[in-house]
Amino acid sequence: MKRKLVLRLLSLSLAAAVTGTMFPSSVYFVNAAENSAAVQIRAGQEDGINDAWAQDPASVAGTGAVCAVEDGWLHLKSDPSNGNNPGTKPAIFVNPGTFDFGQEGYFDFTLKSNNGNTGQNDSDRFGVYLGYDTDENGMFVGYDNGGWFWQKYSGGNGDWYQGSRHAAPAQGEEAAVHIEWTADHKMTLTLDGETV
């Protein structure tokens, strides 16, 4: 089987799988994809799928969250009692690795959603926090039913992207995600080869 690669989501980097409390069917599958870009890397690429991912204890609400490898995919799912917003216990799943976000870097992954993401009744929210401290502090990059966006959280509030959004993935559709950042904290999101 072809080795799937992903740059380890390192220190304070994590996947935030947060869904509305009314939509317990929200499921996320993340699959590491081989990175074929000719980029000089300071850290070696590693397959992060089988790392010791765990839910941040501060984000546990109920017992229905899922954080398990299934059929080669990292399956992340929040409990129905997890919220979406800071302070409402959004489900946060953390990779145990470390990384200095004061230096340039990137990571790649492939994801697919179990929901259609066409409206409030079949939507989910998924994303990655860069510089995660708590659900109230960090740079969130992800999507909800309105599409892909970013939000800078400081004390639970902060600016967010308010322009035209790239659509969230359709049900079962794979999306190749590339998140890159610079030492001076500029971030670029690329979806299926298109910078958004």
TrEMBL record:
InterPro entries: GH101_N. Keywords: Receptor, Signal. Residues 73-195 form the Endo-alpha-N-acetylgalactosaminidase N-terminal domain. It comes from the Bacteria. Residues 1-32 form the signal peptide. Pfam families: GH101_N (PF17995). This is TonB-dependent receptor. It comes from Candidatus Mediterraneibacter faecigallinarum.
